[in-house]
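SAMPLE LOG
Freezer: B-3
Tube label: C17
Construct: single chain, 758 aa
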Amino acid sequence: MNKEALKNRFYELVSPALPNEWEVDGIVDEIAELPASARELLMSQIPVIWPVSNSLCLSFLEDGSRVIETIPADLVPKWVRAILRRYEQQGLASARGVIVDAGQVFLTPLRKRNLVRFEDVRKRLLFYLRGVSGEDFDIDLDASPHTNTTTYFVPVSISLLNSYQKNQLLYKFLLTLHWGFDLLGTFKILPESEVRGNQLINPGTEVTDVKSPMADFLAGFAHPELAADIFFLLETGRVMRWLRADLPGLAHEVGKLRVDLEGALPAADHDSSEAQLAELGYSILFDQKFPPWISQDPALQNLLSTARADSITKLHELYKILAAAEKSYERPPLLELLGRHDFTKASAEIERKRAVMKETFILHLQALRDKNGTSSPQPGGAAAQDEADQAMAVITETKADYSAPQAQQILDNPEVDLPEELVQLINQIKEDLGHIPPSYFSAAAGVSGAGLTRRQASADGQGEELGGQEGILLDEWDFRRNGYRKNWCRIMEREMPLLHSTFVDTTLEKHRGILLKLRRQFEFMKTNEHFVRRQREGDDIDLDAIVEARGDQRAGISPSSKLFVRLQRNERDIATIFLVDMSNSTEGWVGTVIKEALVLLCEVMDVAGDPYGILGFSGMRRSRCDVYRVKDIEEPYGRRIHQRINSILPREYTRMGPALRYASDKLAQYEARTRLLVTITDGKPEDYDDYKGDYAVEDTRKALLEARGTGIHTFCITVDREAHDYLPQMFGRGNYIFIDEIDKLPMRMIDMYRQLTG
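STRUCTURE (predicted):
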């Protein structure tokens, strides 16, 4: 529209009250420079403002032309109402301030009212994510939304859109989008060799497959940020196709945000790769009506394929178009909002989870092997042998003709009677990798060089010591011969798998009231403070000493000069290790309450500031006494400790003596005036072999005596109703408590610790 036509349009809108022509000319010059959309927005408000005040309207057109492009289109009417309201209340000059400084005066307060803080919606988002996925994920904060496949990262707040509900929906969508990446296998895409060798990759760039082949592949492009963003949008397209099919309600609600997002996000410069990517992004998110430069390219047909591998091919084709005229690249605001892929973190987390699944699989098979014996015949042997025994026979076969596929086939048989946990684990591994690698079976069978192994006991000259290099060898007390069995037990130090659950959050919410009270009480335990009376100098007057001195004076006795009290602070110097029984007898309600007790204990001890560690113990036979690290003494308490407590599960047997010796040694290495070792158990020591009865009790008693000999105080908390029969012999009278009401365990544990250390 030329200036003359614009002037005529203005006169039509304000008629019959026409302003001076010289005023109009200046305003028309300002408006004519605006893009057509911004110009129309500005002109559309003339009929609203002109009848109220001609001067205000002229100011709106002149000053508003400089800021109109910063105001989202859907907020312009609300902005005008704010201007008119200020004009009626405070006059023209104040109303002009709302026009000139629209960002500070109008937009900022508006966004504060519409701002959604993550802390306010965390629980709701967490319940949604865990509910829709059926898995135990966590949510944390980061400037750019992304995921490592275990934790989902979102901004600390969102205020982009013009209502609280819309910003809340945006939070929900961002979480779903990044969960979709994980669900559809974005982080498991591997670049094909022919693509990685393509000429578009910088010839001098070294591409390696250390942890994240995809990250290395993208880094090899001349414009890696551009390549990464193209891939991000292609994968977003796959997620949106899935979203429309499986979560149509959410997809429909998100579809309503297009106008809001286009109005709130700055537009990229025309004819740039940023503008083209933004255009593609809006198409992918909302209508899938692609611009001509895509729809007319035969190589880009079926752009939004459901196949993971297609994203690599389409990336190649799109990159050729977008990078052709690219000199520099800046990320479009739309992509800044949606987030990014962090392949390095995701790959590391995927490998960690695979390592945990592998270890757990091996331990399950080892336990079955021990249960069924290590000398099972080959499949097809004794007629009475059941399918599970046959599977274990194949798995544990270590001859040259060892057949992992045969073992796989047997485990795949639905008639094989395997533990439910193992069946679920097998399904998880197959879902992740497509099969169970042969190395998993060979490791379980004890084949050298194949992951975690368990060596059978080998005899020395006395037939006692364990051979091999793995683990920590410890003595065990044999009361029958009144001597130690040298190197009799092997401690296996194990990392606690990081399983994600709502258990800790639920526990904290359940005991929120009592926790507030406990935290206040434990605050006073940071330092041990007491008054020392009858001092020559001090912090306050000793009233008893004053009264006594006055009496002496009247009696003619020379009074004492020690008339003050002094506050003496003794810094706490206490280190504690909690040794938790993880045997299979803790399954069910008992195990749950023990975990609850640990959560509350950690919370209050973190307030008190006392260093403490948590170890779990279980195992089977002397060749594998497992000790699990839940928390090191110096390790800070936080989400990772939460995850390890979540992961405390009932496992095998209770060989208590070796676990006590290991924990005592750890505690003895820590410098502290007072060192306390607290055992939490539901029963007497017992193992699968001959570690039972008097033998187990006496070995445990000896391990406790060894600990006390190094200055460590030992204590036991038990829920075993028969504890009075054996605990006095092991721990000594007064060094244990029996809790007959299991639901009271958390509070009793805290009271016990306060009494022992207060």
